[in-house]
UniProtKB/TrEMBL annotation:
<dbReference type="InterPro" id="IPR029044">
    <property type="entry name" value="Nucleotide-diphossugar_trans"/>
</dbReference>
<feature type="transmembrane region" description="Helical">
    <location>
        <begin position="229"/>
        <end position="250"/>
    </location>
</feature>
<keyword id="KW-1133">Transmembrane helix</keyword>
<keyword id="KW-0472">Membrane</keyword>
<dbReference type="Pfam" id="PF00535">
    <property type="entry name" value="Glycos_transf_2"/>
</dbReference>
<keyword id="KW-0448">Lipopolysaccharide biosynthesis</keyword>
<dbReference type="GO" id="GO:0009103">
    <property type="term" value="P:lipopolysaccharide biosynthetic process"/>
</dbReference>
<keyword id="KW-0812">Transmembrane</keyword>
<feature type="domain" description="Glycosyltransferase 2-like">
    <location>
        <begin position="4"/>
        <end position="165"/>
    </location>
</feature>
<dbReference type="GO" id="GO:0099621">
    <property type="term" value="F:undecaprenyl-phosphate 4-deoxy-4-formamido-L-arabinose transferase activity"/>
</dbReference>
<dbReference type="GO" id="GO:0005886">
    <property type="term" value="C:plasma membrane"/>
</dbReference>
<feature type="transmembrane region" description="Helical">
    <location>
        <begin position="256"/>
        <end position="280"/>
    </location>
</feature>
<dbReference type="InterPro" id="IPR050256">
    <property type="entry name" value="Glycosyltransferase_2"/>
</dbReference>
<keyword id="KW-0328">Glycosyltransferase</keyword>
<dbReference type="InterPro" id="IPR001173">
    <property type="entry name" value="Glyco_trans_2-like"/>
</dbReference>
<protein>
    <submittedName>
        <fullName>Undecaprenyl-phosphate 4-deoxy-4-formamido-L-arabinose transferase</fullName>
    </submittedName>
</protein>
<keyword id="KW-1003">Cell membrane</keyword>
Length: 312
């Protein structure tokens, strides 16, 4: 199998069939498979995915027990792929399916483990664009992403990297965070970004905040270390201030009023507390990231025949 295409599906009963049919046409010269992962959709998406599986031999339909989120659904799909390259594409037609060929061509050059799509002009709602900009800025510092790289959901990943991603067994997968834990050899190819043809974006304010917190806390110890540094700075400032006060008092240049002593004690005590909390948080953070054992997804049902082929 040369190429696997993973599509997380959520409330897209009207777009998933045309998208699958278009992929069948554009990728017809390749040995490829399509993995549809229905992420607890409230519409008829599950039924449409099952119909597509029955119609095409190279389509596998999986349905999750509830809505786990896009990254969990993608991780489920990755675990069921066998292709040498794996493309991840959304179900809303904003990413042109034919652009997969350009991403695969860049990946085949051997220069990159992962090839992201980039857009000259994004057709998202302004709120989604603002949220994406915030997350991209945050990931530059938290996971070591290059500043000029846009982390789009439309990308192609080499098999070796996919296998490493699939080793993650925690409940909060962030695919791009896992990618940058595995490799820094990434590139991008400019593709078109189309306006949404059906429905509206599923990225609400709640989901964007959840993504922000997942990136901020789940994939980096940067927040803990930031408070540790802040605590150390406050403690150092307090100790230095105390030394200045003592020297001034001994030389009769400073009168130690009560409010000065109280301020110094609060500043120094706060710094010491933040420093020790930061050190303690460092240990707890590492334990959490190493020993989180909740499942990232639960499969409601799939294709037993095709799952056996994947296992073989």
């Amino acid at each position: 199998m040369f190429l696997s295409v993973v599509i997380p599906v959520y409330n897209s009963e009207r777009t998933i069939a045309p998208l699958t049919e278009r992929l069948q046409r554009w990728l017809s010269e390749l040995a490829f498979e399509i993995i549809l992962v229905n992420d607890g959709s409230a519409d008829r998406s599950e039924l449409v995915c099952q119909q597509l599986e029955n119609r095409y031999d190279n389509v596998t339909a999986l349905s999750l027990r509830r809505n786990f989120g896009e990254f969990n659904a993608v991780l489920c799909g990755l675990n069921h792929t066998v292709g040498q390259y794996v493309a991840i594409i959304d179900d809303d037609f904003q990413n042109p399916p034919e652009a997969i060929l350009a991403l695969v061509e860049a990946a085949e050059s051997g220069q990159y483990d992962v090839v992201y799509s980039r857009y000259a002009r994004k057709q998202h709602h302004w709120f989604r664009n603002v949220g994406s900009r915030i997350v991209n800025t945050l990931t530059t510092y938290s996971i070591g992403k290059p500043r000029d790289l846009y982390l789009s959901s439309f990308k192609v990943i080499r098999r070796e990297v996919v296998d490493e991603i699939c080793r993650y067994k925690g409940p909060y997968p962030y695919i791009d965070g896992l990618i940058f834990r595995i490799t820094s050899t990434v590139g991008s190819v400019e593709v078109a970004h189309n306006a949404r043809v059906e429905g509206r974006s599923n990225y609400t304010a709640r989901k964007l905040i959840s993504l922000f917190m997942n990136v901020f806390i789940g994939y980096s110890l940067w927040p803990i270390r930031m408070f540790t540094v802040l605590g150390a700075a406050l403690m150092s400032l307090g100790l230095l201030g105390g030394l200045v006060l003592i020297m001034g008092w001994l030389t009769n240049k400073v009168e130690l009023a009560g409010w000065i002593i109280v301020t110094w004690a609060i500043l120094t005590g706060l710094g010491i507390q933040l420093l020790f909390l930061g050190v303690l948080g460092e240990y707890l953070g590492k334990l959490f990231m190493a020993h989180s054992g909740l499942p990232p997804y639960v499969i409601k049902h799939g294709s037993p025949r095709k799952e056996q082929v994947v296992q073989q």
